Amino acid sequence: MVCIFFGHSDCYGLDENVLKNAIEDLIRKGADTFYVGNQGYFDGMVFSSLMALKKYYSNISFSVILAYLPTQKSEYDFYRGYSMYPEGQEKGPHKFAIVRRNRWMIEQGKGGYCVCCINHTWGRAYKFVKQAKSRGITIINLGSVEL
Question: How many domains does the chain have?
């Protein structure tokens, strides 16, 4: 089962242990494939949590889904071995790359879970969580907005 992640770039105040516990609970429920972006504080926390949990749950796999191809060899060294650039991502205007990437993640997540940190009802993270919910993805919000 797939789990995707969306959050505002300013999800400060979220305790990493709360996030890690939410992910671990989903692993126990059968989630084994995780997709996260690489923009912002929340995505970084998710990546860090997944790296830590991989030590205890060898059956899980996760990928950082890139919106853009790296322009320099060392640009994504931090994610080396864990990043993926979806087929077709290069099509269309550069300014919509994050939108295309997030839509791809939603397609992969159908029937699964979306862990998010949504604290306000504006911005792209909120819109993508609403899209995920409309596609039948179970939403787990660790933020303050009721979804």
Answer: 1
In a domain, 77, yes or no: no
Q: Does residue 117 have a pLDDT over 60?
A: yes
Domain presence at residue 76: no
Distance between CA atoms of residues 135 and 133, nearest Å: 5
As beta bridge partners, residue 116 has 6, 141
Alpha helix stretches (DSSP H) within 12-135: 16-28, 41-54, 97-109, 124-134
| Residue numbers of the domain that contains 125 | 2-62+109-141
With 80 as the cut, is the pLDDT of residue 137 above it? yes
Its pTM stands at 0.91
CA angle at residue 6 from 128 to 145, to 5 degrees?
Answer: 80
CB neighbour class for 102 (10 Å; exposed up to 12, middle 13-18, buried from 19): buried
Residue 50 domain flag: yes
Task: Give dist(CA 61, CA 41) in Å, integer.
Answer: 21
pLDDT digits (tens, 9 = 90+) for 23-72: 999 999 999 999 999 888 899 999 999 999 999 999 999 999 988 876 65
86 in a domain, yes or no? no
